[in-house]
Amino acid sequence: MLAILAAFGSALCFGASDFIGGIASRRAPVVAVTALTYITATVAYAVSFLIVPSQWSIASLGYGLGAGLTAIFGMVGFYAALASGPIALMSPLIALIQTLLPVLYGVIVLREQLQLHHWAGIALAMLAAWMISGARLAATRIPARSVLLAIMAGSMFATSLIFLDSSPAESGMTPGFVEMVLGMLLLGLLAIGASRHRRVFALTSRVDPQPPTTPTAPVPDLRVTVTALGAGLIMGTASILVLLALRTGPLALVTAISALYPLSTVALAAVVLRESVRPGQAVGIVLAVSACVLLSL
After folding, report:
1. pLDDT at 297
2. Per residue in 51-86, pLDDT tens?
3. Whole-angstrom Cα distance, residue 289 to residue 267?
4. Are 238 and 38 in contact (CB under 8 A)?
5. Is the model more confident about 45 or about 99?
6. Burial code of 147-172, b = ≥16 C-beta within 10 A, e = fewer?
7. What does the radius of gyration of the chain's CA atoms come to, in whole angstroms?
């Protein structure tokens, strides 16, 4: 039960962080915003060492580095997808990809035994993540570049979760901390390079069929910086929760629940951006709650 609660809490935090980070990425270069989020996420992990017993080892360092490298590409791809495509569609599309790959890995490679109601819960969770989007492929014009970015982000996030799940249990928060430190350092270098060579990092800049009224600044202003740092603090909390869930629950179930982060993303989009909640989204929310109940049995 603890794994279920931690995974659901991580989903709510991830969704809030993704929304806030996605908004910030519309006003500043994606690489710079992602680098800022990693700063406070790293601080959150540093604080977690005071609470959760953790051990350093070569294995924990290696798995943390693997999780960090894949998560970096995932974060950049995620924010780029949200900046270039509809947030309400990109977020659940990435969630579906992020869910499917670890579930297959857990069942095929790790030989995790799932009961019928668990399979039903996973299926409901994946369907709920899509329905909560409230968007239809046939009715929404999506740039091919946004779809590719979403596939990349989902695949990289899934691989990062597999690395974290494979780390030794006694390592505690160590792999996650290594992941965040690596991301902070590399993304900081990328942000510096992006500010000097903007053409090289054109793939991570904002793309919109309607150009913004003011040009995107190469360096985030104070408001965007604070927003990105806040998103990072929430992201760090979410990452700590999902790692705790992986320590106490199977990969397939934890992944399915943590992938319900479009719940809070769409909720914030409705409240802040005043995006209307469609009947299909309401059904998706009911399915998401049902999925959590089935997975917790």
Report:
1. 66
2. 888 889 999 999 999 999 998 888 778 778 877 777
3. 15
4. no
5. 45
6. bebbebbbbbbbbbbbbbbbbeeebb
7. 18
Q: Is the pLDDT of residue 97 over 90?
A: no
Specify whether the CB–CB gap between 66 and 125 falls below 8 A: no
Of the pLDDT bands very low, low, confident and very high (cuts 50, 70, 90), residue 50 is confident
Q: CA dist 55 to 61, 108, 172, 173, 249, Å?
A: 10, 29, 7, 8, 20
Burial of 139 (0-12, 13-18, 19+ CB in 10 A): exposed
Within its chain, how far is the Cα of 190 from the centroid? 20
Average pLDDT, the chain: 79
Structural tokens at position 114:
């799932």
Residue 135 structure tokens: 């968007």
Q: Residue 283, exposed/middle/buried by CB under 10 A (0-12, 13-18, 19+)?
A: middle
